[in-house]
Structure formats: structure tokens, C-alpha cells
Amino acid sequence: MEAAHAPVARAASAPALQNVLLASDGSEGALQAVQRLIALRGDLREGAALNVHLLNVQRPVSGDVSRFVASGTLEDYHRERSEKALVPARALLDAAGIKYTDHRRVGDPGSVIAELARAEACDLILMGARGIGTNTGALLGSVARSTVELSAVPVMLVK
Question: Which domains does the chain have, with CATH numbers?
């Protein structure tokens, strides 16, 4: 008599991690997220094929200020602040040999991050748990909280 065998459940293969949105504001938490991405890439079977979208989002200036400042001047202001915030992340990614695409936006950071992740078909958003913004969140930054709430893809927060 042959022993009955229970059916073996096979785990569905996890979808490949191909597109990652790396949100950076230049803070220490953001740099920790870059370092986590570098380590994560080394753990992936297809790590060299990882497509990284490096994003910085600048908050718009208040309506009162924007009425008195030329739009070109505001664009220059946001571009300069964004460039400054991205320099440390770029340096780490360049040193690790990771190719990336820069994205600079102006708007509400949480919603802009979630929207870009959707538009670029990202599999994961990676960011620091707390950035350089206001201290409105006790343990979790307000941008991180907003991104988690609005995102349709997983969000990895790095402390």
C-alpha cells in the first residue's frame, strides 16, 4: 500500500524588483535609504538591471510670496534647492556604480512621490523615515506617513 502524499504548496515566485523610486531630501535618513538601496541591489539576483528613479520634491512657496516673485526666479530657487539635496545621494550612487534617473518636482511631497512611483511603474518606494521637514510626526515623518497612505506600491522606510 502506497502512502498518501499531501499536496505540496508551492510558493508563488515573488515578482522581480525592477523599478525603485528613491526619494531624497538630503537628510541623514535619506542617505541611510541610499545605503540601504545599495545593499539591497547587492542582494538581488538581477541587481545590475535595477532601474532607480532618484527624486527630490520641493514644497511650493506660499501664495503670498509667489505673487511677488517672478516665476523664473522661483524655478531657479526650487532647482537650486533640489540640486543641493540630491548631491549626497548622487555621490553614493555614483560610487556604487548604480545608474539612476533624476527627477525634480515641486508640490506636496507625499502625493508627488506616490504619483511618480505610479507613473514610472515602480515596484518599491525607498525613503528615510524622517527627513529635514517639520517635526510634525512623533516617530514617523509627515512625508513618510503621507507617502505610505497614498502609495499603491510598497514603501520601505529606513531609520
Answer: 19-158 (3.40.50.620)
pTM of the model: 0.81
Using an 8 Å Cβ cutoff, are 21 and 125 in contact?
Answer: yes
Rounded Cα–Cα distance for residues 23 and 21 (Å): 6
Residue-wise burial string across 21-55, b where 16 or more C-beta atoms lie within 10 A, e elsewhere: bbbbbbbebbbebbebbbebbeeeeeeeebbbbbb
Compute the distance between CA of residue 37 and CA of residue 106 in angstroms, rounded to an integer.
24
**Structure-block grid coordinates of residue 12:** 508563488
Q: What is the pLDDT along the chain (159 residues), one digit of tens a residue?
A: 555 555 555 445 556 789 999 999 999 999 999 999 999 998 888 777 899 999 999 998 876 555 555 566 888 889 999 999 999 999 999 999 999 999 999 999 999 999 999 999 999 999 999 765 544 444 457 899 999 999 999 999 998
Angle at 113 between CA 43 and CA 38, to 5 degrees: 20
